């Protein structure tokens, strides 16, 4: 029992502690939002680069307040992204006192890996998936039965399109963290993960079909990494079990001596 904090807090103290953590988290979000709203236009300028690279140099807005609310959305998304480390830290500081030392060592790597994997997924969406999807979708322009068909995307429509890709890919890349946490919690086992490969592949393509446009290339850009991440989670869990197996005999020999 020495591995866990000896202090016991009544329910009211827990609620006060939770309120404090939430206040710090939302304060960080508010500060990040205040900074992001100032840089909202440059941030949106960065997000429209794939559209510009695809040959489309015009965005329109038909509602009077549409462009204004787009900047608000951009600032909020940016604030949520940049304030996530504060949210994660406050969550850790709230949960950590109730964990054993070995549980802390097991949980902390997952917490640290979350923003890294999300960023990798978001970067893949921005630099690979979005350009491919735009080239496909904007290819429907041209002469159709004597009528010139031209793409005139709206600012809000384009922002929703980009955010769907970025957050979809970012969250999907958290699959290894989710699977390893479920395994450590005893909800699933390594054998079940190995036996469920075929279902995982079907699920990966189903997720890709929902989060990406109906072109095959965009779906493959998400489905294939999801399958690879599934396999990496299995390998990581297997290595963890192997390490425990090697450690167990050494501990037994030490106790025997």
UniProtKB/TrEMBL annotation:
GO molecular function annotation: proton motive force dependent protein transmembrane transporter activity
Domain of life where this protein originates: Bacteria
Keywords attached to this entry: Cell membrane, Membrane, Protein transport, Translocation, Transmembrane, Transmembrane helix, Transport
Keyword Repressor: no
GO BP terms: intracellular protein transmembrane transport; protein transport by the Tat complex
Pfam families the UniProt entry points to: TatC
GO CC annotation, single: TAT protein transport complex
Subcellular localization(s) per the UniProt record: Cell membrane; Membrane
Stretches that traverse the bilayer: 21-40, 60-87, 107-129, 161-183, 195-214, 220-239
Membrane topology type: Multi-pass membrane protein
Function: Part of the twin-arginine translocation (Tat) system that transports large folded proteins containing a characteristic twin-arginine motif in their signal peptide across membranes. Together with TatB, TatC is part of a receptor directly interacting with Tat signal peptides.
Subunit record text: The Tat system comprises two distinct complexes: a TatABC complex, containing multiple copies of TatA, TatB and TatC subunits, and a separate TatA complex, containing only TatA subunits. Substrates initially bind to the TatABC complex, which probably triggers association of the separate TatA complex to form the active translocon.
NCBIfam families named in the record: tatC (TIGR00945)
Family to which this protein belongs: Belongs to the TatC family.
Protein name according to UniProt: Sec-independent protein translocase protein TatC
Organism per entry: Sphingorhabdus lacus
Gene: tatC
């Amino acid at each position: 029992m020495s591995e866990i904090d000896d202090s016991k807090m009544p329910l009211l103290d827990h609620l006060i502690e939770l309120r404090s953590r939430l206040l710090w988290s939302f304060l960080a979000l508010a500060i990040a939002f205040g900074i992001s709203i100032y840089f909202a236009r440059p941030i949106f300028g960065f997000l429209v680069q794939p559209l510009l690279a695809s040959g489309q140099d015009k965005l329109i807005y038909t509602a009077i307040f549409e462009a204004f609310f787009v900047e608000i959305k951009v600032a909020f998304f940016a604030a949520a992204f940049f304030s996530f480390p504060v949210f994660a830290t406050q969550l850790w500081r709230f949960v950590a006192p109730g964990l054993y030392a070995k549980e802390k060592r097991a949980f902390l790597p997952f917490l640290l890996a979350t923003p890294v994997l999300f960023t990798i997924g978001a970067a893949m969406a921005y630099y690979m998936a979005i350009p491919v999807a735009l080239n496909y979708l904007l290819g429907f322009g041209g002469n159709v039965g004597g009528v010139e068909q031209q793409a005139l995307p709206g600012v809000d429509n384009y922002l929703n399109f980009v955010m769907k890709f970025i957050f979809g890919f970012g969250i999907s890349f958290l699959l290894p963290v989710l699977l390893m946490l479920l395994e450590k919690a005893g909800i699933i086992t390594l054998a079940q993960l190995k036996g469920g490969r075929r279902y995982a592949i079907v699920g990966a393509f189903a997720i890709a079909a929902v989060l990406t446009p109906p072109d095959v290339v965009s779906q493959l850009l998400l489905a294939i990494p999801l399958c690879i991440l599934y396999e990496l989670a299995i390998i990581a869990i297997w290595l963890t079990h192997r390490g425990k197996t090697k450690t167990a005999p050494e501990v037994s020999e030490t106790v025997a001596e």
